[in-house]
Amino acid sequence: MSVDASISPGELSEMLKQAKKVVALTGAGLSTSAGIPDFRGPKGLYVSRRYDPQKVFEISWFRRDPSYFYEFAWDFATMASEITPTFSHEFLCTLSGKGILCGIVTQNIDLLHQEAGSERVIELHGSFGSATCLKCGQRFFNLTYRWWLDLMGKSPDKPVARCGCKGVLKPDIVFFGEAVYRYDEAEELIRECDLLLVLGSSLNVTPASLLPYVTNAPTIIINRGSIGLGTASHRHLVNADLDDYLKEVAHSMEIAR
Ligand SMILES: [Zn+2]
């Protein structure tokens, strides 16, 4: 997608003021400045650390031996428990509070939108916020990284989180080959929006990458690098640092942090 159809922070600020049903579709780039690595980026967690993504998120492997996933989960939860939301996460929450933003669809599993205070968040790839026991089927909700770390720490040898019945807990994260969560709801939300913000996603992962196609509303994509989305007159690509750009938008809208 070309960059010549760009849009200034002042222009986006005006669009946001006039819109009534803004939806944000967010990806890894939103959280990288908070310190959450982009799993698929060139310096992603799998590259910088020792994990093989196919093995970490492979459901058949998990059922056979969850300890490999839980080694990753231990490191991820340790890292994520110390991280705070970025300006962009907080800006989206502010837009919700003003009745401008009606929902967030995210590919991220890091819970930072909720931590920033956003309420309507559709987590396509799930998160560590809830879990299911693979043995007795009990569900667990409103989970925090601290809860996971405490539970994993109770495991006698390797850090595997277990239910009271001793069954292995699986966080409600979408593993390879599993269907994403709440896709129909995400599609409906985006179909009804009057302005779509695509933030920090290169739109290279299906089915999230298909979502911008369900609307003809103005679509502003803010991301570093190339985008897997076809050119159209209603789509505007901004190749910029997300936090810096949105700070300028917030400034134009006279929204204090
Ligand atoms: Zn159980």
Question: What do these coordinates show?
Answer:
This protein has two domains: 1-36 and 85-125 and 182-257, 3-Layer(aba) Sandwich (Rossmann fold), CATH 3.40.50.1220; 37-82 and 127-173, SIR2/SIRT2 'Small Domain' (2-Layer Sandwich), CATH 3.30.1600.10. Strands 3-2-1-7-8-9 form a six-stranded parallel β-sheet, sandwiched between helices. Strands 5-4-6 form a three-stranded antiparallel β-sheet, with no helix packed on it. It has eleven helices and nine strands. Helix 1 packs across helix 11 (242-252) and helix 6 packs across helix 9. With 257 residues, it is α/β, with parallel strands linked by helices. It starts with 8 loop residues before the first helix and ends in a 5-residue tail after the last helix. The structure holds zinc ion.
Question: Which keywords apply here?
Answer:
SIR2/SIRT2 'Small Domain', elongated, alpha/beta, disordered N terminus, binds zinc ion, 257 residues, 2 domains, 3-stranded antiparallel β-sheet, 34% helix, 11 helices
How would a crystallographer describe the biggest sheet? Answer: 6 strands, parallel
| CATH architectural name of the largest domain | 3-Layer(aba) Sandwich
> Which stretches of 5+ consecutive residues score pLDDT under 50?
1-5
CATH superfamily of the largest domain: TPP-binding domain
**Element order, helices and strands?**
HEHHHHHHEHEEEHEHEEEH
Percent strand equals 15-25%
Span between termini: 32 Å
**How many individual domains?**
2
What is CATH's topology name of the largest domain?
Rossmann fold
- Backbone CA Rg: 19 Å
